[in-house]
Amino acid sequence: MASASTSSVEKGYIYDVFISFRGKDLRTSFVDHLYHALRKSGIIVFKDDKDIEVGQKIGDELPKAIKDSKFHIVIFSKRYADSYWCLNEFVEILEICQNPEEGTFFPIFYHVKPSEVREQKGPVEKAFAKHSENEAAGRWRAAMAEAATLEGWELDKTGDGHEVQFIEKIVQAISQKPYFANFSINENLVGMMTRVEKLLLSLQVGFDDVRMIGITGLGGVGKTTLASVVFNRIANQFDVKSFVQNVRERSKDPKGLQDMQQRLLTSMFGDQSIDVPSDFEGRSMMQRRMPSIKVLIVLDDVNDSKQLEALAEPSWFRPGSRIIITSRDRQVLVAHGVQSHNIHDVGTLSDEDAIRLLSRYAFKTECPAEGYEELSKKVVKYAAGLPLTIKTLSSSLHGCPVQEWEDGITRLETVPWGDTLKILKISYDALEEDQKEIFLHVACLLKDERKKRAIRILESLGFRAKFGLGVLEKKSLITLRDVTHRCDDCDCDYDDDKKLDMHDHIEEMGMHIVRNLHPVEPQQHKLLWIRDEIEDIIEKDMGTEAIKGIKLLETDLPPAKILHSLRKMSRLCFLQVGWILYYEKSQSYSRRVYEYFTSKYHLPNSLQFLHWKRYPFRYLPKTFHGDKLVEMEMPSSHIHQLWKGGEKKVLPKLRLLDLTGSKLETFDSAGMTPNLEKLVLRGCEKLVEVNISDECLYVKKLDLSNCTALEKVTISNECQNLDKLELGGCISLRELQLHGECPSRLESLYLSDTKLRSLKLGLAANLEVLSVEQCEDLEELVMPVECQKLTALTLCGIKKLRSFNPGRIWKI
User: Fold this and answer.
1) Which architecture characterizes domain 191-345 according to CATH?
2) Domain ranges of the chain
3) What is the spatial distance between Cα 215 and Cα 228, in angstroms, rounded to a whole number?
């Protein structure tokens, strides 16, 4: 069947089929199956999903939907006639269909006979009996008698009463009507039916207002196709219409806006003599002339609000006009006043729809040819739901033997597809330079990172991360997906429930941009993430100043060799090293080789972000000063002290230090971390003492939980910004010294399972959570004078408490 996507161009119908039925009888059974069968064939269906109470009148929506539909199916069931709503709706349909050019009516007799409808006998008579005194009963009877004489379908005489066969015959009969015969872009509607319907509902053609609708999404995802389908469907309901393509590209010309204004005016008013001297005067001309006509305008591929200001100010148009705008940048639409509920995001295709689309282009059928099923799945997997990629690939593979398909798929695994890449790169080229760098870091290094952590990392590298990621999201270059679990290897907040994500081809584009400058010299790439290339550079000692970021999640190289190779990477800012298999084979490796490699042991002083899981050495390199280091994460490391011999070096920019599960024995911030904001030493089983000195004015979070050997914690009175202190599970902790008053901004304090005997919290007026659960030695607890914000106080398991001064606790 040819597509319904443009099936309504001639008459201007919005819907192909309107279904009238009694909801309580059929909504979740026969009608539901018929509805989905019609839609699967590319037919747009209006099906009212409301249950209407007896006595209610047909509202404004239904008569309009009836008029805007070409075909009208009325399903006469045994109880159809007992509904005032159904009968009134039916009369409306029959009146419309008196004129064949306005609509066509088909009755379906569902377990009733045409004669029973025509003469109101049997179950129909029983259902109709309740209307005997209604003044409209005569009109309803006459309408039913007339309907039963028209061409229709009777379930009991079709397919031996089998509903599946019955529905197939109905769909086949509808789709073969001449109405559908002259349209041939069926492939464009694969996976789009729901999108078209939603867009039509948002447009609400016929309502007396000016409405702007936005369509956003990745390049190549089908925004223009969707706009075209809807444009063709409703074009004849407007006085004039215009589809303006490639607005972004045409705007690059110095007179681009002026030229588009002139084309709009000349096409809409049929006056080739119209001359637009400048885009400023063009705006004035459009403002004067547009209010006289009801227009439909599509502005395709808009990327700047200035384009909309020149072509489509809402105040210019006559009520009833509709403007559809496609853009990769959602913010452009929002800035121009398009309401968020009128902005439609076009997502990628499902695997099922992707296979259908590929099959139509590659095999001219609805499913892959025999022998090509698995190959088709591989192509679809590569395309990742992007229609443009599917069309490009499947068209190029049309008519090719299996071997050429296999060769093509092998090539795809290593080389980006050219046409798709060019289209996707348009969004990248429009970014500012720092936004481009953020995008490349996400594509190559930070995809799948939690959003808050990614922001921290990017900020540590000097980027305006929140703003930059916001721009990338609005331009559909990244997306955010929900997560529910906490990371084990990094300091992630529990409420950090979003991860950075992007379409596979967008990711591939970013990687291609980085690699394309030096395709055969990975040592010249600024970002490295491919294990084989990184290991080759390290083994051959080919490090260069060009390298700024390395992500090595797994390797079996000796750790000392990695450190030795870094000496040439003097501009390295980002280093992430994960699982080192070599170390796992030799637990004593760090002790045996440290002295031998001490002269070759190196970390670049240019580092701003450092993450090294299971770092195998006892100390940081002697030559490493860390003047630029902003974040350092070394979970499950063998670090005993930061530098050998207890040496202290100032880390002036360090904001986060995470040594979770390390072998650290003591930590004293004095003279070392003046700008520290977060210290995470969770699970450091050898840690005995922690001192947070008075120079740590900015520290906000201390997580020392489950440090089972920890005996003493000292926090300076100057640390007034501290809002979260976690000491739960420190089963040896006997001394918590809060010099002076307790930090005034402290919100959460966890002290469960400690050996504390006394706790005096002074003026911690912002305290919200206090847990001293199972503190069996606690004898004295003094709360703040006022605890207006306290929402959780856990005291269970305290056996020796003799003195408890709760202050004034307003709510718990």
Assistant:
1) 3-Layer(aba) Sandwich (3.40)
2) 15-182, 191-345, 351-420, 431-511, 664-812
3) 12
Cα-to-chain-centroid distance, residue 123: 52
Return left, alpha or beta for 246; rule: phi > 0 is left, psi -120 to 50 is alpha, else beta: left
Which active-site residues does the annotation give? 89
CB atoms < 10 A from the CB of 267, how many?
Answer: 16
pLDDT tens profile 152-181: 788 887 767 788 888 888 887 887 676 664
In whole angstroms, give the CA distance from residue 201 to residue 209. 14
Q: How do strand 574-580 and strand 609-612 relate by DSSP bridges?
A: parallel
Instruction: Let me know: does 735 contact 713? Beta carbons within 8 Å.
Output: yes
Is-contact 143 94, C-beta < 8 A? yes
| DSSP code, position 349 | P
- How far is 413 from 505, CA to CA, in rounded Å? 12
Element (H, E) at 549: strand 549-555
Instruction: Compute CA distances 769 → 103, 203, 748, 749, 795, whole Å.
Output: 68, 50, 5, 6, 12
Report yes or no: 357 and 380 within 8 Å, Cβ to Cβ: no
Q: How far apart are CA 553 and CA 29, in angstroms?
A: 52
Beta strand ranges found along 396-483 (DSSP E): 479-482
Tell which wins on pLDDT, 12 or 2: 12
- CA 422, CA 417: separation in Å to the nearest integer? 9
pLDDT of residue 190: 76
The number of beta carbons lying within 10 Å of the beta carbon of residue 766 is: 17
Residue 446 has pLDDT above 90, yes or no: yes
Tell me 51's DSSP state: P
CATH architecture of the domain with range 15-182: 3-Layer(aba) Sandwich (3.40)
* 531 burial type by CB count under 10 A (0-12 exposed, 13-18 middle, 19+ buried): middle
Please list, in sequence order, all residues whose beta carbon lies within 8 angstroms of the beta carbon of residue 140, skipping any fewer than 6 positions away. Answer: 81, 87, 90, 91, 128, 131, 134
d(C-alpha 573, C-alpha 536), whole Å: 20
pLDDT for residue 806: 65
pTM over 0.70: no
How far apart CA 713 and CA 261 sit, in angstroms, is 71
Whole-angstrom distance, CA of residue 753 vs CA of residue 214: 57
- Decide whether 15-182 matches 191-345 in CATH topology: yes
In this predicted model, what pLDDT tens digit does every residue of 281-297 receive, in sequence order?
999 999 999 998 999 99
Of 164, 172, 128, 199, the closest CA to residue 30 belongs to 164
Structural element, H or E, at residue 466:
helix 465-474
Contact criterion met (CB below 8 Å) for 43 and 179: no
Q: What is the 3-state secondary structure (H, E, C) of 254-313?
A: CCHHHHHHHHHHHHHHCCCCCCCCCHHHHHHHHHHHHHHCCEEEEECCCCCHHHHHHHCC
Q: Quickly name the fold that domain 431-511 has.
A: Arc Repressor Mutant, subunit A (1.10.10)
Output the six-digit token pair for 64.
Answer: 């309009």
Angle between helical axes of 433-441 and 504-516 (0-180°, round to 10): 110
Are 611 and 656 a contacting pair, CB within 8 Å?
no
Phi, psi of 84 (to 5 degrees): -55, -40
Detail the DSSP E strand segments found in 117-230. Answer: 153-154, 211-216
Residue 600 corresponds to which tokens in the numbers above?
């070759």
CA distance 146 to 120: 12
Q: Is the dihedral of CA 454, 459, 461, 467 positive or negative?
A: positive
- Taking the C-alpha atoms of residue 115 and residue 145, their distance in angstroms, rounded to an integer, is 9
pLDDT for 144? 84
**Separation CA 787–CA 808 (nearest Å):** 6
- CB burial of 85-112 (b: ≥16 within 10 Å; e: otherwise) equals bbbbbbbbbbebbeeeeebbbbbbbbeb
Question: What is the mean pLDDT of the segment spanning 395-416?
Answer: 75
Q: What integer pLDDT is reported at residue 809 of this predicted model? A: 52
524 within 8 A of 546, measured Cβ to Cβ: yes
